[in-house]
Amino acid sequence: MINMNNVQLLGKITLEPKIKEVKKGTKLAEIGIGISESYRKESGEWENRMHFVDVVVWGKQAELVEKSFKKGDGILVEGSLQFDSWEKDGQRRSRLRVKGQRIQPVQLPQYNQEYKKAS
Question: Which pLDDT score, from 0 to 100, does residue 109 have?
Fold first, then answer.
């Protein structure tokens, strides 16, 4: 059986990154990314929809987040989907997030009405 679990996201950081230090000084960074999707409705009008994704990065990539990224910055994330499950207060919980293996800053264009009209 062939498996593939690759994710690429391009968006803006929605909250200040959370940095944690775990075992033996290894760093972990949790970031939220907002990804905008524009589409044309049947009426011809443009609609904008936002998708929000949680991302976790480890080690050197987490150190890069700590030094170089803040809320509002553009970011490209390459990684894989990660499913976590745990129990809290007697209830089973779970989440799906992206485990980032490579990140880099990007300059995203400013969104405005002229940009929409050109599409």
Answer: 78
Cα angle 40, 51, 39 (rounded to 5 degrees) comes to 5
The β-bridge partners of 19 are 29
| Other beta carbons less than 10 A from residue 70's beta carbon | 10
The pLDDT tens digits for 54-99 are: 999 999 999 999 999 999 999 999 999 999 999 999 999 999 999 9
Fold of 7-38+46-109: OB fold (Dihydrolipoamide Acetyltransferase, E2P) (2.40.50)
The answer to whether the beta carbons of residues 64 and 103 sit under 8 Å apart is yes
